Amino acid sequence: MSGDRAFPRIFLVGFMGSGKTSVARALAARLRADFFDTDAWIEAREARSVAEVFQSHGEAYFRARESEALEAACRSAAAVVATGGGLFLSDANRARIREHGVSVWLDTPLERIWERCRESQERPLWGTREELAELLASRSRVYREADWRMETGGRDVEAIVLELMRLVVPGSKEV
Ligand code: S3P
Questions:
Q1: Nearest CA to ligand 1 atom 15
Q2: Helix (H, G, I), strand (E, B) or coil at 87
Q3: 19 lines ligand 1 (CB under 6 A)
Q4: How does pLDDT run across 129-139, given as a tens digit for each residue?
Q5: How many angstroms is it from 171 CA to the middle of ligand 1?
Q6: Is the pTM higher than 0.70?
Q7: Largest separation between any pair of C-alpha atoms in the chain
Q8: Is 8 in the pocket of ligand 1 (CB under 6 A)?
C-alpha cells in the first residue's frame, strides 16, 4: 500500500473549505514527498474549473471524473492526497482509499468554514448557512468512517501537519 515509503499514503477527507489542499501541500513538503489534489487533477484534465465542469456537464459527470482522479492518485507516487469534499461519500471510493492508504477526516466547525469561504464563488455546492449546516451534518455521518478524525478548528496548518505526522508517520520526530 505504501510503495517504498515508511508510512502509508495519506488521504485527507472532509467538507469543502476544511483546508485539505493547504494541509496536504504542507504535509507533503514536510515529508519531502509529492502530493495529489483530486480537484486540481480534474481541472487540468478538463481544462476548466470545477465550477465550469459542474455547469457544463452536471454533477454525475464530475463524480465520475472524481473517481478517475482517485484511481490516478492511487497509481501515482503521491504520499498525500487531498480529496474533494464529496469524494469520500462514494462506497467504491472509500473502498479504494482503504486499499491504498489511511484516511484522515479534517473536521472543521461550520463557523470556520463559513468565514473562510463565504466570499468565494468557486464552489458549486456552496449554499446558505442553513443549507451548509444540513449538508455538513449528513456528510459527517460518512466522514466519520475515516481511519482518523482530526479537529482542526482554530488551529493553523503547521499545527495540523505536526499532529498528522505524529498520527500517521512512525518515528516522525526525526523526519
Ligand atoms: C465538492 C467539494 C469541492 C469540489 C466540488 C464538490 C463537494 O472540493 O470537489 O465543488 O461535493 O463537497 P473542496 O472540498 O476542495 O472544496
A1: 84
A2: helix
A3: no
A4: 999 999 999 99
A5: 33
A6: yes
A7: 48
A8: no
Which residue, 46, 79, 78, 41, is CA-closest to 61? 46
Joined grid coordinates for residue 161: 501537519
CA of 53 to the centre of ligand 1 (A): 12
CA distance linking residue 117 with residue 35, whole number of Å: 23
Written as nine digits, the cell of 100 is: 491504498
Q: Does 124 contact ligand 1 (Cβ within 6 A)?
A: yes
pLDDT, tens only, 62-87 = 999 999 999 999 999 999 999 999 99
Task: For residues 136 and 120, give the distance between their C-alpha atoms in angstroms, rounded to a whole number.
Answer: 18
In 3D space, the residue among 162, 169, 9, 32 whose CA is nearest the CA of residue 83 turns out to be: 9
Please give the distance, rounded to the nearest whole angstrom, from the Cα atom of residue 87 to the centre of ligand 1: 8
